[in-house]
């Protein structure tokens, strides 16, 4: 988990921020080996379009190691702020 977090901080976070995303928080559940994070995007093109661009970018494709290779199972949920 510590290797995952170090790679995420060094690779994913800067690329996401450069693509206009905001990292709103990140947490780890070490007992169950789980990592959770919340990101936001407020561009006019919408989250889905920005996310597609992010994953297609040469910078993301070139990340070593590829973060996706370190993920056993992933789930994403779109949420809306109410407070």
From TrEMBL:
<dbReference type="InterPro" id="IPR011008">
    <property type="entry name" value="Dimeric_a/b-barrel"/>
</dbReference>
<protein>
    <submittedName>
        <fullName>NIPSNAP family containing protein</fullName>
    </submittedName>
</protein>
